[in-house]
Request: fold
Amino acid sequence: MNFSVSETIEFDLHIHTSRYSGCSNIDSLQVIQRARAVGLNGIALTEHGIRWPDREIEALVARSGVKDFLVIPGEEAACYSSRGKFQGEFLVFGYPKSLGSSKSIDQVIELVHEVGGIILAAHPFKRQDNGDGFYGCGDAVYTLNIDGLEIEHPSYDSESRNLAKKAMESRSIAGIGNSDSHDLNSIGICRTVFTRRVDNIRILCEEIRARRVRAVNMKDSLIRERTHVSS
Reply:
């Protein structure tokens, strides 16, 4: 799979569709059209424990009618220890198979790194609804052999964002921004900007490992823009 994209590279690398994620209401065909409409050059489909087959993605892009747009097959793996303790959710790119949601994070890291893929902590500092801890790996980002983490996410408050950025800087790993979209209108609200051309999975993994990425929160940008105009 090798689609060309323009030189200004902005991706949303965390999107769920109704095709393989029962919790999403996004039609898989509309996702590409919406992503292009909000100025993205590419997306990653990251269903829960399921990797889209390459042939399905190629057919989806062809049916969409959108040109010069890259769709990356990734997945979001929920990890559990051997005793069944939740260890967090992790975005995986460059692994050729579906991982499911029953493996430990150590197993996932070993499997993915063995084939040259990357693992990123999904929303590690997203707060639980009851305020007790995080729905993510939290401070485990300091000890896990991961390649990066989400430092911009729609559910983050200012403290969560600061915790994520502190972990990124301390570990010297990549910080990315993603929407974690389950509905069409949220696509691209947070995004990852690449400083070099990206036109396949291998290059995407290389650029993230090299930390040649920047996380952007479009919601904050819009708020600042509106404040500036009103003043």
